[in-house]
Amino acid sequence: MHIEDTIAAISTPLGYSGIGIVRLSGKDAIRIAERVFSSPRGKSLSRGPTHRLLYGHIIDHENGELIDEVLVSVMKAPNTYTREDIVEINCHGGPLPLRRVLELVLRHGARLAQPGEFTMRAFLNGRIDLAQSEAVLDIINSLTEEGQKVAMEQLRGGLSKRITGLREGLIGLTAIVEAYIDFPDEEITPPDRNELVERAGRIQTELGELISSSRYGLILREGVKTAIIGRPNVGKSSLLNALLQHDRAIVTEVPGTTRDIIEEYLNIKGLPVRIMDTAGIRDSGDIAEMEGVERSLRAMQGSDLVLLVLDGSEELHETDIRLIEESRTKDVIIVINKIDLPTRISPERLPPDKPLVRISALKGIGIEDLKEEIVDMSTKGRKVYEIDTPLVTRQRHLMALKRAHEAITSFLEGLDSLSPEILALELREALDALGEIIGITTPDDILNRIFSEFCIGK
Description:
The protein has helices at residues 29-36, 95-107, 117-124, 130-140, 145-155, 158-182, 193-222, 236-244, 287-301, 318-326, 367-379, 395-413, 420-438, 444-452; strands at 7-10, 19-25, 37-38, 52-60, 65-75, 86-92, 111-112, 224-229, 262-268, 271-277, 305-311, 332-337, 356-358. Helix 4 packs antiparallel against helix 5, helix 6 packs antiparallel against helix 7 and helix 12 runs antiparallel to helix 13 (420-438). The protein is flat and about 85 Å long. It is of the alpha/beta class.
């Protein structure tokens, strides 16, 4: 990636809208824009003040063709998103004018931006760190308002400040240990063990708090993977439709109607829930249905939460008992459906340690109670606003924090048995792990993978 080039891209979704934006960033952004922009009053993009909006036209001067009527915003470095000169051409929002304007600026010297390259330049130029860069993408992809609030807090530097503070503490601790190693002839007093334990223990505790926060952070970013499981005709598809409040799944009295997994996202009180309606579990000779059953079982094992649906108008079937046993290690809510019919199910045969909700998916009875239970079980009864530490929302951050925590634990456990050199290596490992989160020690392949998740115009 050549960061000296001037890049350009369409920064608004393709389609039809009131406006669309072609964005340029780089040292030649203003010069390239001036080659294609014409102001009726003869105003100059380069000689005028920064952060202003000019009315005019985009013209292909090779043939004199008028391409579009536009508003052009000029933002001069360093006070821009990328800390480079930025020009944004606000066009009419159809695909054709946007494409033609983009082609014109590319012809005059810009290069088509790669995915996430605008944000990568903001990172490389020091405006934001890596965790903040990832927060930009999380804001764009937020599933709920709560998730968007957490992403905004990360963009403002909440997590980065916490990580930076931990690294500063580690640097001070490392300096104490390495000074004793590097200057053995200076009669430096050996580090005080109690001080090392106190300082390392404080860092270990803070790391533990951040790791604990990942349960809520990952849920807010990725959603709670929730599988609706049960044998055929217990009301799984009816439950999905009731939760979504529209008919997403086909509902019939014929067993085996659902052959594949149907996925939808649902916002329950600020909690994003990725809910999956699965094929009914039963023995069948139908090849397609057998494959659907296998996918259902895999979905159950890979889910965060299981809604095990039972038909309350029938006694427990051996398949119900099998599913209860297979899901014992999962977070499960037992959902007894069809309570509008006479109840025949025996509660004493149900696991007493699993929450139970009675509903009628067809009539909408008990659906709100089920939603409350989904939220309580997923968050263990805690709400986002009750958490007083920055939330960890990415697996990459979580893995790095765990590595740092393990290194500090090894340091503390080895104080009386390991050499100062090995102890210093453990501290360095923790430092490097935390540095990966904010981009101080992150390898290029990880950087490329992170920014490749972005759309081209961001």
